[in-house]
Input
Amino acid sequence: MSQFFQIHPENPQARLIKQAAQMIREGAVIAYPTDCGYSLGCHIGDKAALEKIRTIRRLDDKHNFTLVCRDLSEISTYARYDNAIYRLLKHHTPGPYTFIFNGTSEVPRRLMHPKRKTIGIRIPDNKIVQALLEELGEPIMSSSLILPGETDPMMDPYDIRDTLQHQLDLVIDGGFCGMQPTTVIAMDSESIEVLRVGAGDPSPFE
Output
């Protein structure tokens, strides 16, 4: 049975944030709010937790996982990009985008696309996530909470608890947090390509 934390979306309670971060460090798989629906998350180095997320979503080994990061300095540890890309990122983060980059050696191999060696990177505009990342001091390994056969991420934490309470360790209720998935931008080659149009405006990247 998963725990259920109700965390204020504008003023996250420090006590609950600390508890959630410690659960992640100890191997928990959590559902948490972002600016584009709810996501599944776990510790970046936890193989067993990652496999639980694969099972929940029925993902194969070609799925691009996402590292949810605090800021641009944290992104630079895990992704390769030039100064022009940096300027684009600076103007559009935090926000409803997922960027696909070539990963650095700091990214665990099991998180990257097996052939292209790419990784998704995201900086959500959500105070609960930002507080959680600050407490953790490192990214959250993440995947949108889209159940098999569905196209949109789950939005209601009570539905998440009812549906997945035996598969998750923690559900964070951060209220309503958007209906659209992120806009996905590939920046893993010399060109920039919009792979999916979602909540973020794609025009700056076209």
Q: What stands out?
A: The chain has one domain: 1-194.
